[in-house]
Amino acid sequence: MAGLAASLTAHAVEPLKQWKDSVRVSVAQMNITDKDLADGRDRVDPLLPWMDKALAEKTDLLVFPEYLLGAFKIDDALITKLRAEVKKRGMNVIVGGWEYMPEAVIKHPPDPQTYANSVLVLDRKGEIAGKHWKMHSAVGAASPYCWPPAADERGELTMIPGKENGVVDLDFGRVGLLTCYDGYFPETFMMPSLRGAEVLVWVNSRGGMVEPHIMQAASFQTTTHVVSSNTSNGCGSAIVSYPGWRVDASAPEPGSEKLITATLDLAELRTQRVNSRMFHQRRPDAYKSLTEKREPWKAYPHIKPFSYDDPKP
């Protein structure tokens, strides 16, 4: 078995071109309504007070929740304004919305496969340094198990799903991205870490709390700092640092609008990553089942699956 592991091709990770020994991160847990997201509304202006608050905190990276840009195209006036405002303040910003393809018509509901749930990463110069398209559709809200989707359900079932995490180099180091339901799959935390991401940013916009235990477990297993954002429709925006997997800052109060900030040690993190025994002792030869389609629910043929025709569990 050791011979098989040794025979596997090792994939080199591109070295960092820029880095700093620490990064100051802020998260804006802010309100959002359907009215705020309406077409024709200026969806950049509500972000500006939060940018200014973060600027006063000497923030290097400001993380917003999911959806705040509403429907957009990369080359439209909304994104042009966003880029200008970010450049004016000279900080890195992460914010998301519904990115329509260049040839698509923005309409509601959208035509299938014309848009993605997209997170944009803007650098200090206001340039789009990278992006992430949500990989897993959040469906089944009418089921107590969030599965299966209802027969007439559309929502994220019609989006273009991402194929892998966005991983972006910024002036302080490397960031990996995941969106809301992506964070319920442990692979989506590990994959960007294996590609060199040091800070994993998990953007959300949902009722309820972003789960701190998921963030802490992800930090431990991936040797990364983990940052989450959520709207004040829910709560749980948080910053978790490695080593220690401690919650450095959080906004756990439901309905609260709050800017949280923490400074993350990147120099020590990199020493930990160079010497991580979990990195050095990974056994990809033993993880074949992770890349195979499996049906574990079929281990229980005596249990009737949930059905909308017979909704009692």
Main traits of this protein?
313 residues; alpha/beta; Nitrilase/N-carbamoyl-D-aminoacid amidohydrolase; seven-stranded mixed sheet; six-stranded mixed sheet; 13 strands; globular
Can you offer a commentary on this structure?
This protein has a single domain (19-282), classed as 4-Layer Sandwich (Nitrilase/N-carbamoyl-D-aminoacid amidohydrolase), CATH 3.60.110.10. Helix content is 19%, strand content 24%. The protein contains seven helices and 13 strands. It is globular.
Count of folded domains = 1
- Approximate helicity band: 10-25%
Percent range for β-strand residues: 15-25%
Encode the helix/strand succession as letters: HEHEEHEEEEEHEHEEEEHH
Q: Mean of residue pLDDT?
A: 95
CATH architecture title: 4-Layer Sandwich
Report low-confidence residues grouped into runs of 5 or more: none
In terms of quaternary structure, what is this?
Answer: single chain
β-strand number: 13
Q: How would you classify the helix and strand content by structural class?
A: alpha/beta
User: According to CATH, what is the topology?
Assistant: Nitrilase/N-carbamoyl-D-aminoacid amidohydrolase
Report the radius of gyration as a whole number of Å: 20 Å
How far apart are the termini?
44 Å
Could you describe the largest sheet, including whether it forms a barrel?
7 strands, mixed
Number of helices in the DSSP assignment: 7
- For the record, what is the CATH homologous superfamily label? Carbon-nitrogen hydrolase
What is the top-level CATH class?
Alpha Beta
